[in-house]
Amino acid sequence: MGVPKFYRWISERYPCLSQVVEENSVPEFDNLYLDMNGIIHNCTHIDDADVCFRIPENEMFDGICRYIEFLFAIVRPKKVFFMAVDGVAPRAKMNQQRARRFRSAKDAEIALKKAVDAGAKISTENRFDSNCITPGTEFMDRLHSRLQYFTALKITTDPTWQGIKIYLSGHNCPGEGEHKIMDFIRCERSRSDYDPNTRHCLYGLDADLIMLGLCSHEPYFALLREEIIFGGFKKEKSLKFDVDAIKFHLLHISLLREYISWEFQSVKNKLSFPFDIESIIDDWVLMSFLVGNDFIPHLPGVHIHENALPLLYKTYISVLPELDGYMNENGILNLSRFEKFLKHFAKNDRKCFIEKLDDELYLASKRNVNEVSLDEIFFLFSKIGWTLSVNRAFKDHKRNYYFDKMHYENISKEELQAQAEGYVKAIQWNLHYYYHGCCSWSWYYPHHYAPYISDVTNFSNFEINFDKNEPFLPFQQLLGVLPKSSAELLPFPFQELMLQPDSPISDFFPENFSTDLNGKKNDWEAVVLIPFIDESRLLSAVNAKMPLLDDEEKLRNSHGPHLLFVENIDMNDFHISFEKVKFGLLKGIKWDFSYRGFPTLQHIPHSAQLEDAGVQVFNFPSRTPSMILKILPRADFEKDISEIVNDLIGKEVYFRWPFLTRGLVHEIWTSDYKLITIFQIELNNENTLLPDPLVEFQLLDRIITVKKVLSIPVGSTGTIIGIPLVKKVEVIFDNYFLGGKNIRLMLRTSCLDHEVSSSYCSATTNPVKNFSANVDSEHRIEASTSATAKNFDYGKVQIKCAPSRQSLNRNNSHLISENAHKNIYEKKKKIECDDPHYSSFDKRGNFQNKFNWSFSPSARNSPYNSRHIGEFRSSQSFQPLNSSEQRINDPSNERDSYFMKYSYNPGSSEFCNNVLPSLRNGMDFASKNVYSPTAAQYGRPPSYLFHNTSSIKSDPIAYQNQVFHSIFL
């Protein structure tokens, strides 16, 4: 669970952190990590509120595998794919797991009683017990086997899963999923051949993944997660995950690093030691622990919803110049500096206490606590029967807190000191866990509540030590975290320990318990008041029953390895010694190079300032300040509108800063005019058509309404630039002989989603008369041509293009090039490309798509007349089909079949030597098409969507069913 409400808070504080995942917008990642338990929970108990809802186990497993497949297809990692299922957790985490499982069992019991009382028909089939998603259960053992089979099957049958390292760290390997992933990253970073520019993507739902991403000090790190809808959301009772139905977000840790730099920029010139953003980030992580997480409770009065984090940052900015360094030194707590920081922050304790008084004192304190006179305070106290000073009343309040919460009848100084040292030890255990790995499997924070921050003092000389020991075995953890209602998940000998009244540990499993909101607002945030496990008693009871287990149960009660398909990795191989861990940024990071898809704020000069702007990141405007980025004035935009038009219209640009989405300026709006591109087509002396772009000024006769703007306009907006999003640009180019003439044919698409895209052809002989493109919903591509060698006159060329529905990021609007049979087979021409908009190649230059083309000799004059029929398949090769496949699409014996799909790099010599001269030397166009001259001007393939007659009758530049994006000048 991590830190409740943290994700929403940070998204509203830093509004540009997250990017909605769209087609072709996912960066290239080297490594993909899945924190699997979020997937498992989402695919197994979709609707806990419906006690009648049931899902067969095989459907659960199918859903989990589909989800994995889907996430892999979105990210398409180049080097490593790591799936991590939660194994046995440290004792510190077990306390939280125990509370959560007892609470869920109680909620299920209440829901069932309500349903019965309401007369609902309850199925006789046992309801799915989500507590079975715990290491060591039969359910997890079956799921582990299914995941192994699924992974082996994908590696064998799916080329996109080949050529990378695939790891599966199952429930039998100790450690939480996300921390096993961090162990792996630390291990990889320690290697001499590690690439410091490795690009990481971590899927998971827990907010603490944000801290883990920062702790890694990897500059290219992003978190992938489903969209969270606040304000009410009901899950669909279906395991069929539709690409269009699930919206994903990428939270970029690289942007968060830059936001944190802005957050503390004011302290940069006030320090007596170097300002180091990596150390600032480490201290930022430390401060985040003070609002609580899975291992320690939050401090009294320190709540995210009560602005605790901004108060921590404000304190840090004021205190850091007084220190001689940073508090968090690579996961080791500097006690003296941390004590000085807490001493300043403790002033908030007294303020928080005063704010909880009656309304009058609360309003007085809100004016300013320091401005409230002592007489006024005594007067207000007398009104409610108090005669004590504020300080004395505060001490009494804390004494009552320790009595009510921790059962100290009259807490002494020694007991307060023990509380302080215990809390500081908890902070240090957390830091070690996040930066180095688990330093003690048995340590846990032994209280349900934390002390007041003003009592966490005098610890600078405290020695912190932890017992190094081994993790629990699976059945030991099950007995430590499961309630009595889930006893069936354990082997029968251990069920007796939970159910029998005379069990030596029967007191570990109370059926009734209370909860305490303790300053929180939601029931799910309440403290669950159940007793902590006595480890020695638990292990003694378990050991007495161990001989009664059968062989299969003994196997389930053991630890296993990480699985690397093809070999096994010992579970301790990723745990490296402290001396080998490499902290901070590694040498060799390319700061002057922007990796494709990884955003940065540095592309545009800007400033940043916290403002109450009401940013609506989710369903409602933020009620807290947000870091507002303001673009600084730019000389290149302080121009006359005609100059802006000449500079931008018809040109490729990047917009949606800081995510830099590729687009083409289609039109420019001012308060008086709409400016669009039109094209004048003339016939030159060489009998070829040359486009000449003009700009048309149209007087506006309607009001423009811009919806879903990605930024907040501050002040008036003078100019709006309409930019259609370029989803994909592909060109296939080839030479061949037809009737003794050299024909150069180029087919090209630039498409938006499933939008129709026409193309153009260039030739040194007669032009193609007609060319059309249509979207086929059946995922098939068909092309047919007819040509007569006598007059070189092509007939109609038809292409039906259908995007593949197998993955979100595969926009397969494919192109077909008319090639001679001999040229395709003998030359096997393949030109690799390295353009982000070519979805048909992966990073290594391998094909992501394979087509089966049929070529047939004809009785007509030209030996190269043909009819092509292709269907989508996956492949990584360019080769002839074997004999058994040659007639897949044609039952006759007259055709041979080959694979063909290639393209080129726009910056390659192939483009410069062949394609660009063709563009500049003359163009032949179908009479019904419009052309954009971007390529001829900039040496790149056109990034514009062409139109046929039906779409240009009313408006020559109208797009059908198109969404325009806007930027502001």
TrEMBL record:
<dbReference type="GO" id="GO:0003723">
    <property type="term" value="F:RNA binding"/>
</dbReference>
<dbReference type="Pfam" id="PF18129">
    <property type="entry name" value="SH3_12"/>
</dbReference>
<dbReference type="GO" id="GO:0005634">
    <property type="term" value="C:nucleus"/>
</dbReference>
<dbReference type="GO" id="GO:0016075">
    <property type="term" value="P:rRNA catabolic process"/>
</dbReference>
<feature type="domain" description="Xrn1 helical">
    <location>
        <begin position="275"/>
        <end position="360"/>
    </location>
</feature>
<keyword id="KW-0540">Nuclease</keyword>
<dbReference type="InterPro" id="IPR040992">
    <property type="entry name" value="XRN1_D1"/>
</dbReference>
<keyword id="KW-0378">Hydrolase</keyword>
<dbReference type="GO" id="GO:0004534">
    <property type="term" value="F:5'-3' RNA exonuclease activity"/>
</dbReference>
<dbReference type="Pfam" id="PF18332">
    <property type="entry name" value="XRN1_D1"/>
</dbReference>
<feature type="domain" description="Xrn1 helical">
    <location>
        <begin position="397"/>
        <end position="569"/>
    </location>
</feature>
<dbReference type="Pfam" id="PF03159">
    <property type="entry name" value="XRN_N"/>
</dbReference>
<feature type="domain" description="Xrn1 N-terminal">
    <location>
        <begin position="1"/>
        <end position="227"/>
    </location>
</feature>
<feature type="domain" description="5'-3' exoribonuclease 1 D1">
    <location>
        <begin position="584"/>
        <end position="675"/>
    </location>
</feature>
<feature type="domain" description="5'-3' exoribonuclease 1 SH3-like">
    <location>
        <begin position="696"/>
        <end position="746"/>
    </location>
</feature>
<dbReference type="Pfam" id="PF17846">
    <property type="entry name" value="XRN_M"/>
</dbReference>
<dbReference type="InterPro" id="IPR047007">
    <property type="entry name" value="XRN1_D1_sf"/>
</dbReference>
<dbReference type="InterPro" id="IPR041385">
    <property type="entry name" value="SH3_12"/>
</dbReference>
<dbReference type="GO" id="GO:0000956">
    <property type="term" value="P:nuclear-transcribed mRNA catabolic process"/>
</dbReference>
<protein>
    <submittedName>
        <fullName>5'-3' exoribonuclease</fullName>
    </submittedName>
</protein>
<dbReference type="InterPro" id="IPR004859">
    <property type="entry name" value="Xrn1_N"/>
</dbReference>
<dbReference type="InterPro" id="IPR047008">
    <property type="entry name" value="XRN1_SH3_sf"/>
</dbReference>
<dbReference type="GO" id="GO:0006397">
    <property type="term" value="P:mRNA processing"/>
</dbReference>
<keyword id="KW-0269">Exonuclease</keyword>
<dbReference type="InterPro" id="IPR027073">
    <property type="entry name" value="5_3_exoribonuclease"/>
</dbReference>
<dbReference type="InterPro" id="IPR041412">
    <property type="entry name" value="Xrn1_helical"/>
</dbReference>
<comment type="similarity">
    <text>Belongs to the 5'-3' exonuclease family.</text>
</comment>
